[in-house]
Amino acid sequence: MTKKMDPKQNKEVQVKKQKQTKKHDWSYYAIIICLVLILIPSLWLGFTIVKASIESGKPLTGQRFANDHDPEITSDLQKKVAETLEEISEFESVSVSLKTATLRIQLKMKPDTSKEDASALIESAYDRVVEVLPVAEYFKTEGSKKRYDLEINLFNFTDVTDDNRGDFIYYQLVKNGNMEDKHIQLVSESKDSELVERLKTEQAEAKEKKANENGEPSKEEKKEE
């Protein structure tokens, strides 16, 4: 038999239930608001991570360097420079390379070339280069736009000894973006041994590279044989 509850007690129970319901409703909405506040930045962070992941394979370039070295000295242009220099019969070998935004050219002339003829040759070589790569477009800085540097090394031989040092001729031409005009120096008269050694090393590397391109064995492979 069910016990009947006093009307007064029944009213108190109903009031308590209403209070609990109201308290529950307030907590529920408070939690929702908190979740929304947390979810918004989380979604933004997640979107940023996903976007960065998608673009991870792309180079990051800022506007500051967007126009540097533009137009570019491509492999085809380097080859064209080499071909036009090889047309000068006084050059026994020609090497053109691009390293750290510097177009470096190595020119070996005939051993018996005079200093006067060598001076004229390096001027002629420069003229040939800038016909292919105009100074204003490739070797002259404009405002914040960086350009390439140009270095031409002209020499008659690299095996410099005390006996043949007097016959050694080594001219170097330099032109960078901040220079109004090119600068030519007869390096062999400065007796700078470091420059001579660097020239020998670069010439050896150029020979090795050309030999590899022609399918010839390298020095290391010859030693192993």
Please provide a written account of the structure.
- With 225 residues, the protein is α+β, with helices and mostly antiparallel strands.
- It has two domains: 10-54; 75-214, GMP Synthetase, Chain A, domain 3 (2-Layer Sandwich), CATH 3.30.300.
- The chain is built from six helices and five strands.
- It has helices at residues 7-54, 75-86, 115-132, 135-138, 193-213, 219-224, and strands at 91-99, 102-109, 149-155, 170-175, 183-186.
- Strands 1-2-3-4-5 form a five-stranded mixed sheet, with helices on both faces.
- Helix 2 (75-86) runs antiparallel to helix 3.
- The longest helix is centred in the N-terminal third of the chain and has 48 residues, at 7-54.
- It is elongated, with a radius of gyration of 38 Å.
- The termini are far apart.
- The model is unreliable at 60-65 (pLDDT under 50).
Find the CATH topology of the largest domain: GMP Synthetase, Chain A, domain 3
Supply the number of helical segments: 6
- What is the global morphology? elongated
Domain tally: 2
What is the second-level CATH architecture of the largest domain? 2-Layer Sandwich
Placed side by side, the strands forming the largest sheet appear as 1-2-3-4-5
| Topology as a string of helices (H) and strands (E) | HHEEHHEEEHH
CATH hierarchy, class of the largest domain: Alpha Beta
